[in-house]
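Changelog note: in this version the structure field was regenerated for every chain. One regenerated record is shown below for reference.
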Amino acid sequence: MTQETDSETVARLEREIERLKAENERLRQALEEALRAAKRQAAPFSRRAPKANPQKPGRKAGPDYGRTYRREVPEKVDEVVEVPLPARCPDCGGGVEETGVISQYQTEIPEPRVERIEFRIHQGRCRRCRRSVQGRHPRQSSTAVGSAGSQVGPRAVALAVELNKGLGLPYGKTATVLEHGWGLQMSRSGLCQAVQRVAKKAEPTYEVLRKRIRTEPSVTPDETGWKVGGQLWWLWACSSPALTVYAIQPGRGFEQAAAILGEGFDGFLVRDGWGVYRQFGKAVHQTCLAHLLRRCRERIEVGGTGGAPFPRAIQTLLQSSLDLRDRRDREQISSHGLAVARGQLEARLDRVLQRRTRSPANRRLRNHLEREREAVFTFLYCPGLEATNWRAEQALRPMVVTRKVWGGNRTARGARTQSILLSLLQTCRQQNRPVLPLLQRLLCSSRPRVLDLTPPRRLSR
């Protein structure tokens, strides 16, 4: 009897050892994948193993070809080039007779050309106050003369701003594009000074945008690390459907967030789980469900099959709430049915949060959800409210790429320039406004002016 019990014990322990070995191998592979993903290499890499039977690249024949498209014939033709027949057939050398004429159209970039303008400025003196007066042309971007009398025009400076701040090109590459594309030679320091002059003229518009973002009905904030003079600062982005305001600041606390939104912001705040945002007591909060779902997926991957009931339950609940939102938006459920289903989801969430969990990571997830409990299903009460903070993440994404290219700013003044011009460029993109004419008009104004970037009509809350 004793021998049989010992054998059973040995067998049980061997099975437990095999299970732990398999679990250890699985966790080791997961750790390796996480470490590889954390390296954030610049070159593209495969996230998973290649497919066994991948689809053939390119267009598919037959009905699966997709939408056909061809370049339209230009409405205006600037030049007509006659292409005569050759005197002899290129194959047999026989004579050639003409049978007709067909047309081919080509849209080409013109030869690079720099336009050099001389403004002959007439000077005079006021007969009454005897002060000096000089003329100004609408195409002038400055009244400077003498040693500063040779300047770069507003169109070139506006393009440099778009290349540097909008597309993330460093000053050296921006100068290369201007030289290769148009034959315009500029130094990196000259570009830097020109961009700072644009930011100075755009500052009144930036301050108006900061005031407007505080009155928007729904705002999505987010932040990411940024370097200024080699020190860690933070790039903040507060985005609404109509405009975006950036601010590079030396901290990541409530003081910096309130510097953009104001301490009394009382609109909808769609944000991630960073605790600073909960200090906006007058706002109506919606926490980002994408962040919560991501945490659940990570816990499920670590826990393995059957080893992660708590994150699986949370994942199912959150996905059900998104499905309910889609049914509401498609008008597939009545108001009463929506209220009943919403109440059931909230009750299920409360029951799940009462479960005991042994894993420290699951306890952290549960504690986080308890803090965010009142902000999880706000989007089910407010039609049109986003369930994720995708808008701010999209606003930060180009700057994350720019940070990879040239790191950040060297000075606080450069960070201020970055914030002003980024806000202007991103707002123009959101409103489908061409930014280059706006920058040219701003540069050619004789006095500081506020650009008209009035957002579309506000949504009723």
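Spot check on this record: The mean pLDDT is 88. The CA atoms of residues 353 and 369 lie 8 Å apart.
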